[in-house]
Backbone:
């Protein structure tokens, strides 16, 4: 037992890192920063960042903590955008119900997509999600209620619970912030739940998890549905913010963007997708003048990440600090 | 069907892969409380047999009975829930989880399925004590908070054993527990298996014949997918057909 002392020494900092107290601190700091951000930045821009941050976090739940790579997540984001838009505009739903309905639609869609896709693994899983999402895209292109190329425009933001007038951007911002924080905390809890432990075990070694008696397909399916629902929450909220649901939201490039956000921020990190979303949305906003060159800049970032910062911004930062972020 | 002393029995177990018969008409009978070895040259079908018994593969023909119950049609997780727990040829640990968490994943099975994503993982801490006991039992108590991936190979196998025992299996299937180990580790793992085999039933695939001689009550020799011989070590070692199969196909391995 000569080797005993050495690994135990490595273990000490890790054990405290597992206490995760620093993550609560970062979380509090983030909430504070986001609460004061409208003083400096344009609320609509911030809302866009928050919607995509939630979307990226939901996506990261699958890729980072279950090891499932979905290339079809735009389907959930876009379906929710249409559902919220239609419910609010045509059926006259109040915003909270419109978003709840949208989330439910995406969850149901996630159940179907997930049920079909989790029978396969790795690249086949990814291809099935992509194929299903593409089928849905062409359905939405033709379906009358989506407005085809025009999308659903002038979606009313309405009054939250009949009280708060969301047409005021700042009021809307507080609501979006609450939605984001709620979604983020749910994901955080999921990662650190008994369920999350099993997910991590599946990610690390699926056959071993099976041999311990876990019905891994059911765990994967539940994770998939959760991810789809939270992507829907993000998409539905985004439709209200911009008062627009369009084909862009269901297009495969949207699925690609969320992959990019999670990757730039750091796969399998708690805060990475948020940073990734902020970076990508900022690029799109501030480099909008460059037109199509934005795509090229994004491509370069992607290449740089894959070559030099495999762990993403937050992943590398966490490694430097010696603490998981 | 199964007599009193039989925990696992197969009848006519066969697995065919596109015309290649990996396992042919195997009738295996594992006595309760025994340590039973499955040996044979490379490609004899030992691991395929394991995969069939744990339902990771579906047999082409034949039946499998566990404690008298036909388990041929069950899914792998169902077989595991009945108490047949396997290990893998390449050490199967959850690399980014700590040793303690690895064992706890198994202990967590006691609460049934864990679909409660809204609860805190803190409620798993009630198994920390038991997990530490198990880690101590296999001699890696000091590594409880080390990520499994950072453990040296021999310790990983010990961790795998601790995780397996945590489920209180009725039948343990160990796939080459000493594969790829140095002499010192082999000795340690052999002692460990002897310890955990007390009061349990173990079926193991093993290449290292000295380990087999040391540990096992019954040995089944598999060659080209078929049972060639069965008996205790002395009998197997004296069997000329076994010698021929071994020396003929992989000299010096034993």
Residues:
């Amino acid at each position: 037992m000569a080797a005993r002392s050495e690994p135990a020494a490595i273990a000490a900092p890790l054990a405290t890192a597992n206490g995760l107290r620093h993550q609560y601190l970062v979380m509090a700091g983030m909430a504070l920063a986001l609460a004061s951000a409208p003083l400096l930045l344009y609320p609509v821009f911030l809302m866009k960042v928050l919607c995509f941050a939630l979307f990226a976090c939901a996506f990261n739940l699958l890729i980072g903590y279950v090891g499932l790579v979905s290339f079809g997540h735009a389907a959930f984001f876009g379906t929710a955008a249409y559902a919220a838009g239609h419910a609010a505009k045509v059926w006259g739903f109040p915003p909270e119900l419109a978003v709840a309905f949208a989330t439910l639609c995406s969850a149901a869609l996630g159940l179907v997509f997930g049920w079909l896709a989790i029978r396969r693994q790795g690249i086949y899983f990814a291809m099935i999600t992509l194929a299903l999402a593409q089928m849905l895209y062409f359905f939405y292109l033709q379906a009358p209620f989506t407005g085809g190329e025009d999308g659903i425009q002038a979606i009313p933001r309405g009054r939250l619970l009949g009280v708060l007038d969301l047409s005021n951007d700042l009021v809307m911002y507080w609501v979006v912030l609450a939605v984001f924080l709620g979604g983020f905390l749910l994901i955080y809890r999921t990662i650190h739940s008994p369920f999350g432990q099993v997910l991590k075990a599946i990610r690390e070694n699926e056959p071993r998890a099976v041999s311990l008696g876990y019905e891994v397909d059911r765990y994967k399916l539940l994770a998939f549905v959760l991810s789809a629902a939270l992507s829907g929450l993000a998409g539905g909220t985004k439709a209200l913010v911009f008062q627009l649901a369009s084909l862009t939201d269901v297009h495969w490039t949207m699925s690609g963007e969320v992959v990019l956000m999670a990757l730039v921020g750091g796969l399998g990190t708690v805060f990475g997708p948020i940073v990734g979303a902020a970076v990508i949305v900022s690029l799109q906003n501030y480099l909008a003048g460059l037109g199509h060159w934005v795509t090229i800049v994004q491509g370069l970032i992607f290449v740089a990440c894959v070559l030099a910062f495999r762990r993403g911004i937050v992943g590398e930062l966490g490694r430097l600090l010696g603490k998981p972020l | 069907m199964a007599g009193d002393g039989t925990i696992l029995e197969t009848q006519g177990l066969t697995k065919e892969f596109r015309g290649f018969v990996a396992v042919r008409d195997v009738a295996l009978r594992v006595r309760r409380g025994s340590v039973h070895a499955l040996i044979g040259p490379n490609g004899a079908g030992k691991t395929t047999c394991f995969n069939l018994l744990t339902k990771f593969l579906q047999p082409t023909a034949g039946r499998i009975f566990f404690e008298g119950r036909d388990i041929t049609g069950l899914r792998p997780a169902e077989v595991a829930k009945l108490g047949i727990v396997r290990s893998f040829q390449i050490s199967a640990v959850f690399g980014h989880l700590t040793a303690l968490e690895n064992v706890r994943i198994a202990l967590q099975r006691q609460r049934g399925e864990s679909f409660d994503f809204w609860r805190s993982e803190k409620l798993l801490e009630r198994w920390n004590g038991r997990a530490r006991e198990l880690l101590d039992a296999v001699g890696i108590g000091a590594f409880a908070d080390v990520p499994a991936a950072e453990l040296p190979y021999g310790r990983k196998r010990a961790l795998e054993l601790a995780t397996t025992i945590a489920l209180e299996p009725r039948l343990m299937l160990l796939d080459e527990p000493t594969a790829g180990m140095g002499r010192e580790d082999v000795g340690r793992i052999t002692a460990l298996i002897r310890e955990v085999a007390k009061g349990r039933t173990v079926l193991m695939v093993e290449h290292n014949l000295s380990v087999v001689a040391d540990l096992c009550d019954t040995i089944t020799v598999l060659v080209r997918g078929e049972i060639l011989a069965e008996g205790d070590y002395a009998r197997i070692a004296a069997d000329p057909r076994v010698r021929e199969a071994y020396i003929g196909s992989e000299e010096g391995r034993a």
Notes: The two ends of chain B are 35 Å apart (CA to CA). The mean pLDDT of chain B is 87.
